[in-house]
Specification:
This protein is of the alpha/beta class. It has a single domain (4-226), classed as Alpha/Beta hydrolase fold, catalytic domain (Rossmann fold, 3-Layer(aba) Sandwich), CATH 3.40.50. Helices cover 33% and strands 20% of the residues. It is built from six helices and nine strands. Helix 2 crosses helix 3. The radius of gyration is 16 Å and the shape is globular.
């Protein structure tokens, strides 16, 4: 069993029915696990699946582009170009998320019924963790994010998740993470053969109702497809 002292503090939203799926949802820079709780409430009332939502709080750390000011973050951002990658910080966050995945399996959720989701920085960690995880997962949800260090990741990609469904969405008017970053991520993943469900919206660095409705439909499709399916290993 997992040592609970090693697990990040989380907010959890349980469904009315016994959970069959779990979504581990990572917030963006400077936010915390409360950020997407309203979305979970909406999705759980509008989807057919019994989903447990887990919203971990990222560790507090100094952020270089914010003059070293400490805030919740999954890794440091050193420049506005996003070319300088905090590899150590990303690795630490991946380890945290892997522990949360293991805990869900300990609680009876099959690995291929666990989704990783995230917004902005959280999307970057969800994508990186998901495509490199050594057991098959249910899917990845990346909202207003990107995939850092794409070329270096090629050697770490896990074969068992080469067919993992990915919901990738971004605002065309995003002033924080340029739309071109999301397009580059989409191109990279599709060229490697991942089944990417790509969505764009005329919004800034945020989410919108149409996006959540598209996500709901995607989750329903995945859960319906998984009924009766065996593990992808």
């Amino acid at each position: 069993m997992m040592n609970n002292a090693e697990i990040l503090s989380c907010i959890e939203i349980e469904p009315d029915l016994p959970a069959k799926y779990s979504i581990i949802w990572l917030h963006g820079l400077g936010a915390d696990g409360n950020d997407f709780v309203p979305v979970a409430t909406e999705l759980n009332t509008r989807t057919a699946s019994a989903i447990r939502f887990i919203f971990p709080h990222a560790p507090i750390m100094p952020i270089t582009i914010n003059n070293g000011y400490e805030m919740r973050a999954w890794y440091d951002i050193q420049t506005f170009s996003f070319n300088d990658i905090d590899s150590e910080g990303i690795a630490r966050s991946i380890a945290h998320i892997q522990k949360l995945i293991a805990r869900e399996m300990d609680r009876g959720i099959a690995c291929d019924h666990i989704f990783l989701a995230g917004f902005s920085q959280g999307a970057a960690i969800a994508l990186t963790t998901g495509i490199c995880y050594p057991k098959p997962l249910a899917g990845i949800i990346a909202l207003s994010g990107y995939l850092p260090g794409k070329e270096e990741l090629k050697e770490k990609i896990a074969a068992c998740n080469k067919n993992i469904p990915i919901f990738l969405a971004h605002g065309t008017d995003d002033p924080i993470l340029p739309f071109t970053l999301a397009l580059a991520t989409k191109t990279f993943l599709t060229e490697l053969g991942y089944p990417v469900s790509w969505h764009s919206y005329h919004i800034p660095h945020s989410v919108c109702g149409e996006e959540i409705e598209d996500l709901r439909k995607w989750l329903d499709e995945i859960s319906n497809k998984n009924k009766g399916d065996t593990n992808r290993e």
